[in-house]
Amino acid sequence: LQQRNDRQRSEMIRRFEEEVKQDEEVSRKEERELINNNGGAGMKSLFQCAVRKVPQQFDGHKCLTNLKVGDVVNVLQEGVGPDNKYNLCSIERSGASLSSTTATKEETQISL
Fold first, then answer.
1. Which of these, 66, 69, 90, 86, lies nearest to 78 by C-alpha position?
2. 24 phi and psi, to 5 degrees?
3. Beta-bridge mates of residue 80
4. How many CA atoms lie within 13 A of 47 on its CB side?
């Protein structure tokens, strides 16, 4: 009985992980289409705002990374994502402030 329960539990976990993976792929595809259809990095900013707080759990696959309080982000589109509670934003970073060691010259990069 215990072995059967363990097998069923393992199968449920495997199916759940597959569904999550498929959902992430769909989300990434939708995000790419949104960015590509709206001009990507060339999208016009609606307005800018300063980051006032960075939550500890701000690590989703759609979140801007390496944000600090005081960073200025460009809001490209409001009311996106689940329940339209999110904004599509970008941030301009200079090559000198990037943590990547491959940034050797001063250049502007955009993260979406």
1. 86
2. -65, -40
3. 86
4. 4
pLDDT value of position 104: 33
Q: What amino acid occupies position 76?
A: L
DSSP sequence for 22-86? HHHHHHHHHHHHHHHHTTGGGPPPSEEEE-----TT---TTSPSS--TT-EEEEEEEEESGGG-E
Instruction: Look up the pTM and report it.
Output: 0.50
Residue type for 12, please?
M
Q: What residues form DSSP beta bridges with 54? A: none
- The pLDDT of residue 24: 85
Question: pLDDT below 50 — which residues of the chain?
Answer: 96-112
